[in-house]
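Per reviewer request, we include the raw input and output of the structure prediction for the construct analysed in the revised manuscript.
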Amino acid sequence: MVTYEYFKFLNLQYWYCIVYSIFGGRCTVVDTPSATVPTTTLSANPPGQSIGFWEWLFGGGGGAYTGPFAVFVNAFSGLFSFFGSLIAILWGIFSILSYSLSGLLVLLITGSALGLLLIRYSELSTYGNLPPESKTALSERSRWQILLDGAMAPDPKRWRESILEADVMLGEVLLKLGYPGATTHERLRSVPEGAFVTLPNAWEAHRIRNFISARSSDYILTQREAFRVMKLYEQVFEEFDYV
């Protein structure tokens, strides 16, 4: 006749009690209702005798173990019971800290997401209706880049042409700003002192332009000086977002 004892390895409660008792817990000994072969199994239910893992391992019955390995069994049972309690306490502390930290992180992530949405909405309200950059502005930047390339070319003739053309651009900027005059020189003279930050740069660049445009001038233009003058013009144009 097949008894329950041969199938107790299929009993999850049985194995739970084995693992539970390793750490100092106690499981009760329950007699199975077999009429022919008396068998025992482990149960977590309180009725009956209690047995720990080490007593069970070395063949002990209920109560304190009194077999040949009594000292060894009882020592290990107490040690595992202590570590089991310690692990339970540490796990409880760890759980409290983990849940608290997780809650704070969730709040932080939520706040950051809401703050980012607010920033995006603010940027959209501020810059969303700005007109696209005009083709004129793009053409002026391309025009200025060509002049800069000319100032860095090995040909001295292109240095002179770049400065003369840059002075023409300066006159166009001053005209757009509302300063009257037929030439760049006249428009510069109509600008009040201190009207804008780079006005001294504009005057210095225009003065050198006059030197190189006068045929009777003995002014010697070097590539280094040509590039410096072009940068003076560029600073004026950048102040007014012209290039």
